Amino acid sequence: MARKLPELSLFFPFWNEESNIEHVVTTALPIAEKVADKWEMLLIDDGSSDNTLEIAKKLAKKDKRIKVISHQPNRGYGAALTSGFAQAKYAYIVFTDGDAQFDFAEVSKFIEKIDNKDIVIGFRKKRRDNNRIKRLLLMNLLKMWDFLLFHFSYRDIDCGFKMFRREAIRTLLPLRSEGAMITTEILAKAKRKKLSIAEIGVTHYPRLHGNQSGANIPVVIRAILESFILWYDLHYGRT
Q1: What is d(CA 165, CA 73) in angstroms, rounded to the nearest whole number?
Q2: How far apart are CA 143 and CA 147, in angstroms?
């Protein structure tokens, strides 16, 4: 087990994850106790149309360190992450996706690296997505796209398991992307600010409940548009 952090903010973005949210939260609670002296957990519901928000509120009633943030209507993955960063109050911030495809216990790997880095980003050692071939193709297209537009390359840009120093996040704000390009925006701005980044391999598990949306055509089109907006902002001084 890695050293214990003095304080930690952890958050999970959720969208229509009524079958996953309780498992994600209850398995993370004892790990938070082990890895941080003080901690808070933010449950970010991005306009779910199922019972995700109601379950989140019930879980928050059981522990005052759990806080619910709700978007109405649905705004997008980037908006959910931005709300988490904005509301997090402690010196270290970590998030994982709320679809139960990561094991939060692996946060210890991130803690081992964060002392010497501003940001620690996960990469999925073996992807276990539904439609795996399609997802791998999109992942590699994103890597090439980001290299061409923003001149950086990482093994798994959009892996939903990342840790930050709070002061690093402050240097990246404001974040403009409300869709899937949020991680590209974070990494492009981190490169510009010369922040130090480490990569850590994490285990990826199959999605057992709910549906993935990252490969949907509207999501991809929105990501392309947001990438051009980001490029413009970076080159013409708006960020």
Answers
A1: 30
A2: 6
